[in-house]
## 1
Amino acid sequence: MSPLNIALSSEFVRPTNAQIGAKLQADQDAGCTYLCGNSLGLMSKRSKTLVEEELDIWGTRAVVGHFSHPLNRPWVEYIDNLTPLMAEVVGANEKEVVVMATLTSNLHLMMDSFYKPTPERFKILCEAKAFPSDQYAFTSQALAHGLDPKEAILELSPREGEYTLREEDILRILQEQGSSIALVLFSGVQYYTGQLFPMEIITKKAKEQGCICGWDLAHAVGNVPLKLHDWDVDFAVWCTYKYLNSGPGGIAGLFMHEKWNSIERPKFAGWWGHELATRFKMPPTFSPINGAQGFQQSNPSVLALASLLGSLEVLKEVGMMEPIRERSLQLTGALEKLLMGSKYYVSPSDVSQKYEKSGSTAPGFTIITPTEPSCRGAQLSLLILPMGSGLMQKVFDSLVSYGVIGDERQPDVIRLAPAPLYNTLIDCENAAKFLELAIDLL
């Protein structure tokens, strides 16, 4: 059997066809074709075990579990089990990362520290159609500083007829308007198109122009190799329930480069950010942990930490991000080849001629994710044609009936993400086969 057919770990629980409502699948007990790890990763058996252990300890030790833990994971220090693993995932020193809170709350904390607009330098540079939560955060931060978001937020859009941003266009804007840009904040991987931005290059250019550079890594962490410390990134935030498989609403993460430790101290102090040695002595004066962990505010959910720890341990066993990336490139490349072989596939360069100019109503699809493997992660975004026809939802519903779980983005996009920890070539083959059958039904 091809190595692409063998998942790197058998520790993940996959819903069956019956459980996800795949009515057109004869084998209802078989695992579904799950290609939605870019939205919510599958549960690892390790995570389930660790969570159940903490539930048992909660029941048998109650509050004593904070300090006396039969498995040597006292809750007050539980985060120490995750910090070195998370630091390795994002390419950071341990003091530069912390597992805490949620993505958007962490984004606000970091923007409050690093977005310091002046009359001359006040703009936030980002991609157009960033994830809505980011857009809301940008707007609210601009308003909090008394700025008009329409003037403060500089959004970059792809060129006409294109779906993704060009590197040279980002660098050109930084060169031309860098003196007015206070903060550069892109997604590591764009959630809608799946484009992987050249983070190192953008960060370097931003710093040359005197800008602060941060990253939303929600779709990049656990997906592509990162070197936040070496790239001189100022800060980054991420969630962990996608490619890090921590569970719905799982705890998030934060990075702050160590060069800022003595400059950007936590402004919104909380007792969990206080140094551990005196935290439980309840001193009246806040003494923050040095580095990113000083930004903690409340004690984290141990159940959420346990769930994330299980998945990170699986990731560590397979060698972390380099082998994950190698397998990801293989799987995503295989899926792309299969999709491009479909009778319904339309090249991006032909979409305008076939649909916009000729007015064709024939169903089809194109792939709006970059074809260059180095410019994408483990996701292919399919634009269902003709645009605005309402066919996407019909195709998506049919895919579910065939046991294929992807992710729909209104009005016309279906995202398919072969997560390298648990997806296989068979998943890719099923997705391509059933997509064609789904369009046949239209």
## 2
Amino acid sequence: MEDLPPGFRFYPTEEELISFYLHNKLEGRREDLNRIMDRIIPVLDIYEHNPWELPQFAGDLSSRDPEQWFFFIPRQESEARGGRPKRLTTNGYWKATGSPGQVFSNNSRIIGIKRTMVFYTGRAPYGRKTVWKMNEYKAIVQEHASSSSSTTAGSPVLRHEFSLCRVYKKSKSLRAFDRRPLGVEMLRDQTGAAAHGDEATTSCQNPKMEKMEIANSPDESSSSQGTNNNIPDQIGERSDIMPMVTDTQPFWDWDPLDWNYLEETIN
């Protein structure tokens, strides 16, 4: 696994995490498979460490991943006795956000429960929120019916012996495979049209500005009519209502209506 090529990432789905990895860990029947899984997703009490210390304990497939790491968490003694789990670390604590959600398989069957947590530095209620987050998964299995009863599976049971967590850092930037140097798009927008003389590109970048420039450029014939000098400015200010003018002849330069001719026609 140390000779993996660049770009290789361990990126399982939620269904794969529960249906394969967590289920096999809970059953623990195949020792050869357990040895392999321990190298991929190690068993670790993550609450004994701060989140920024966890990447060094990650498995072979995610130790060099800069964004997410996976661990099996054994059930704590306090939780086994019916108490609440302790999620305190030396520098802070994990706090659950929202209600637990259900995880479904491809055939729309509930296979697990998912809880999202955020790490805070300090102590509650004065902790300070960080960018570290965690998804904790617990598996739901069908309890086997006893031999004296029917052969069908029993009611679903939530298993607590092990949970599987995905630790990651919340980032406002794009993911690693989508990142680009900052300012490239802005530089292209500012200099692309000027360098190549592409007037069509300039007009398409800001169609609203093009509409205002067309509406605010009065024709020579309309400029001679003093009563209509304020119309272009009004149209430019209401460019969101006025459609784009495509004809070079403004619509306000139509010939005036001959009222005498109209009156003679009616009479």
